[in-house]
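Box S2. Input/output pair 1.
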Amino acid sequence: MNISASPVLDMDGFTRTLVHNISSSLGPGFEVTVSDQEKNNRITYTCLTIRHRDNKISPNIRVDELFSAYKKGIWSMEEITRRIIESYENIDQETTGLEDLYSDPQKLSDKIFYRLINYERNCEILDSFPHFRILDLAIVFCLSVTVSNDESGSVKIDNRLASIIGLDADKLLTIALRNTPKLFPSEFGDLDDLIANIMRKRGIPEHMIPVFMGGCLHSPMKVLTNDKEYFGASCILYPGLLKKFREELGKDFFIIPSSVNETIIVPADCTNIDHLREMVRDVNQTVVPPDQILSDNIYCYPSDFDKDFIAHLLS
């Protein structure tokens, strides 16, 4: 094993050193490569991929955050190398959930779910994926997998994978509408609680939270997400869920697409829609990470959900 500990100054040198270190540590039979992977909203990340000739699963590992940790002195090159190798070795190739992909792909149907992404920001790649357009959004499909111990991940279903599974877009939609609420149960709570929890995670003392929140306390706004708080905006398509909210509120409401991870529900009589639109655009430009932006638009329930296609989804 020959691990380089020489200091590196840029991303290119960092990735080349990682490839050298990991290849030397893992030995023959492994191929370590670096590539740019396009994620949501046409945002690309530099990823490292480890392949072994006997394994079908080749995980992509983002290196931008690792490089940042290295530059800040949080982790040494040796520590980063060790962590990547441990992460790879902890992946159980037989329990990812994809072991039936080629032998019996129909067994994967229970793992199919959907996500909501922005249509225009992803239109250049959507032809390669089974999808549906809804409002200014797109429904895309994924397979739920286990990546390490109890940690879950996903694999996007492109046209090639859909062909292997033997399901077209209509069948994927039918299955995903059934599976997604089960795989990712919805969570609905006060905006106050969400903001307070974020502050706690950032180490703000409990007695200081009301000071920082200021006018946000006792907000009429609610947050809708899933139990993973990841791509939780998809919950707006859970059958019957928005209708249930309408009955509980007793009034129409706006849906603010705050990110791909959650939406905010605002009673329609609490604010001006033009103000909300301006707020969403500003937040998207200044706060939300580019790959997590869902939309600059505001939706109104039920008027924006009266279109035939949406009515079909929610029926």
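Box S3. Input/output pair 2.
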Amino acid sequence: MMLKITQLKSTIDRNINQKLTIKALGLGKINKSVIKKDTPQIRGMINVVKHLVKVENVNEL
């Protein structure tokens, strides 16, 4: 299964770990989206920044 991760909020005035996690996910600008494979590592990264992003399930193509 794939996940569509969209950044909804800015990383200004956020913890350095949250800023680096957003960058590691391939995000960095508001409303930017990436599609990632659903793995425990990605889920852990999403959990760190869950208040900054929106996550949707996407069917594999």
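Caption for Box S3: The chain is about 30% helix and 30% strand. The beta strands are 2-7, 33-37, 53-58.
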